[in-house]
Specification:
Distance between the termini: 33 Å
Largest sheet: 8 strands, mixed
Order of helices and strands: HHHHEHEHEEHEHEEHEEEEEHE
Number of helices: 10
Number of strands: 13
Structural class: alpha/beta
Radius of gyration: 20 Å
Helix content: 25-40%
Strand content: 25-35%
Shape: globular
Length: about 325
């Protein structure tokens, strides 16, 4: 997945004149903080050099993961056309770009971000862009939320891992109260990230929410440790991205876990592909999370048109009810 041209150009302008050695060192420090899930009272990104490192190395992957989640929502809620967005822990506004790309009629956005460096750079990235008006508000999500009106779409991406466990539930509750329709939560695609998603999912279902994606049901997750539910999105790397991370290949796979919950039920699906499909040609093996639980399904020529559908399926795709062959 590529960044939108306007966002890529804005990022390139933000990185003009930055020395590679400085950027690489800042990217390494940032990566260490994220990987350690460090909670020391500081924001991971608290100065402009850290912001630039984030723009070069993390923004493309974060954008790609959020955009993939939003596209999954559109498939199960084709009627959903949000007019307002609330992004909690907005960083440099990544989710705003992803949401506006998914729903061009998005009319307004509220972005909560504690880091002044992020807020400043995020506002500059949007200058002159065809994006809805955005209100940036200072908010430390480790503290109680400010009073918020309902927004059609609420996004919380890559934030729960930065909070103490005893703060996460209250934040999820507060954001659900500010959700007019859909709340999307995204976390790193690690076992720990998946457990945080599960906790939030359980909490939201208990509050009356309907799971939109990725799950095709609202029952307990059927996966058993050490397995965990996560997905991957391939991300195009710029030359500077590769240099800052010391990589050579022109892409990377961002792994993420997520849940989208709505106040309204979503269109049913036959299942979600929760592992890379195996096989090719006349035989495709699928691992599905289905309404009835985990399903291992082999699709062959005997399944007729379903085989053609199965050949197109990728990890994370929904198997539509009308295509299931059942």
């Amino acid at each position: 997945m590529e960044l939108p041209a306007a966002l890529r150009a804005a990022v390139d302008r933000a990185l003009e004149g930055v020395g590679l050695a400085e950027l690489s060192a800042a990217a390494s420090r940032l990566s260490q903080r994220y990987r350690a899930e460090l909670r020391d009272g500081r924001f991971h990104v608290d100065d402009d050099r850290a912001v630039q490192a984030y723009l070069a190395t993390r923004l493309p992957a974060t954008y790609a993961a959020i955009r993939a989640c939003l596209e999954a929502i559109t498939l199960r809620r084709p009627d959903f056309a949000p007019a307002s967005l609330l992004d909690a822990g907005a960083g440099p506004g990544t989710a705003l770009w992803a949401a506006a790309g998914t729903w061009p009629d998005l009319a307004a956005a509220t972005l909560l971000e504690g880091s002044a460096a992020f807020r400043d750079r995020g506002a500059r990235l949007t200058e002159g862009a065809a994006l809805p008006p955005a209100e940036w508000r200072a908010a430390d999500l480790a503290r109680p939320l400010p009073e918020l009106p309902a927004h059609d779409l609420v996004i919380l991406s890559y934030v729960l891992d930065e909070l103490a466990p005893d703060r996460r539930g209250a934040l999820v509750d507060g954001l659900w109260a500010a959700t007019g329709d859909v709340l999307l939560i995204v976390e790193p695609g690690t076992p720990a990230g998946y457990r945080r998603i599960l906790d939030a999912r359980d909490r939201l279902i208990a509050s009356g929410g309907h799971v939109v994606a990725p799950c095709p049901h609202g029952r307990a997750c059927p996966l058993v440790e050490p397995d965990w539910c996560h997905f991957a999105q391939r991300v195009a790397r710029s030359r500077l991205h590769r240099q800052a991370k010391g990589g050579e290949v022109p892409w990377e796979d961002e792994k993420f876990s997520y849940v989208a919950v709505s106040r309204r039920p979503a269109a049913p699906i036959a299942g979600r592909v929760i592992a890379p499909p195996r096989g090719a040609g006349s035989r495709i093996d699928l691992r599905l999370c289905a309404p009835e639980g985990l399903v291992e399904r082999t699709v062959t020529k005997r399944d007729g048109a379903l085989l053609k559908t199965a050949r197109r399926l990728r990890w994370g795709d929904a198997l539509e009810a009308e295509d299931s062959g059942s």
